[in-house]
Amino acid sequence: MAGSRVAHATLKGPSVVKEICIGIVLGLAAGGLWKMHHWNEQRKVRQFYDLLEKGEISVIAEEE
């Protein structure tokens, strides 16, 4: 009775090129989200100062 052959998965080491590509993609995605957040905050600040300059809002509480 001959030993039956079982197909075993051969483990290979991590692919350096694949790891670099995944890192670049994740870095660009995170950087894009951070940049969008930064632009949104910048837009809010610019809008606030535009309204302040027009006199539509005030930072001083009105006395009653």
TrEMBL record:
It is found in: Mitochondrion inner membrane. It comes from the Eukaryota. Keywords: Membrane, Mitochondrion, Mitochondrion inner membrane, Transmembrane, Transmembrane helix. The keyword Transmembrane helix applies. The chain crosses the membrane at residues 16-34. The keyword Transmembrane helix applies. One of its GO terms (cellular component) is mitochondrial inner membrane. InterPro entries: COX5C. Belongs to the cytochrome c oxidase subunit 5C family. This protein is one of the nuclear-coded polypeptide chains of cytochrome c oxidase, the terminal oxidase in mitochondrial electron transport. This is Cytochrome c oxidase subunit 5C. It comes from Carya illinoinensis.
